[in-house]
Amino acid sequence: MPAAPDNRTTPASGQPAGGARSVSFMDPQTLMQIKNLQMRARVIVEGFYSGIHRSPYHGFSVEFSEYRQYVPGDDVRYVDWRLFARSDRYYVKRFEDETNLLCYLLVDTSKSMGFASGEITKHEYARTLAATMAYFLYLQRDAVGLAVFDEQISEYLPPRHRTGHLRHFMAALQREPQGTGTNLAEPLDQIAKTVSKRGMVILISDLLAPIEVLSTQLGYLRSRGHDVLVLRVIDPSESTFPFTNPQMFHDMESGKRLYIDPEAAREQYLQAFNSHAAALKSVCSDLGVEYVVCPTDRPLELSLFDLLRARMQQGRAPSHNDRTARRVS
After folding, report:
1. pLDDT 10s digits, 225-261
2. Residue 313's closest CA among 76, 60, 134?
3. Fewer beta carbons within 10 Å, N or C terminal of the chain?
4. What would the CATH number be for the domain defined by 100-328?
5. Could you tell me which residues belong to the region Disordered (predicted)?
């Protein structure tokens, strides 16, 4: 797993989810025609900012670098009543030491990320996601780091916010998938041990790895005080298995070829896929980790809303240690 038919080609266009339907987003397939990764990210971010001003989300992130949403216990002296009048939401002013986020983007480049049932591979979508988030955070004056991994970390940039860093970041993302299996244990463990200051870790992967490994490593990150956002990149065909004709399937990680009758295999495959997906969601929920499924036909702007939501919740979710302590007591 994953297994792909040898005549693979990828995705159909999808629809934005939930309340974002009222906002017009660019089709990912159209965006991928922009070859320069930084330019692609810039187009997405500029479209996102433009969309916010025309949508019900106005007020959600326009003042993002200066404000955060009010939570019980905050000093009411710092509530911005003018912003409340415009947005009908309570925000408190953030101080300088609050606005500078330390963020690590972890991007999976294992062989399975090269899969596509249409024109966009999971890897191309994943690195565009990472580039978009890096560009957005850079504009917010946040320090952004990168770890590109397969079985181990192959590219690493410590978080920085200075001239030239974004260019190096984009260049590191250009590496094509070379590895085989997805090993989440080593890169997550290395990040947890390297980052001493609390920050945000954004994991971008198809998460085709044992649930036990994911649970252990994400739990370790949370126990060290990091906020974690998991973006699971999947091809639309992986969740629907639309294949109909018997044919040879190629396991992209092991290299094995199997002759499969989709009609006979569909029920078992979907049961295994859905079981794995449910376990991922449960693990992330238990650990206080934001978990988002990102099919490769999903508008990339939506993931910036996911990032904003995760950051606004920063520090609110109890850590893994806190949860464990409550269960023990």
Report:
1. 899 999 999 999 999 988 887 777 766 666 678 777 7
2. 60
3. C
4. 3.40.50.410
5. 1-22
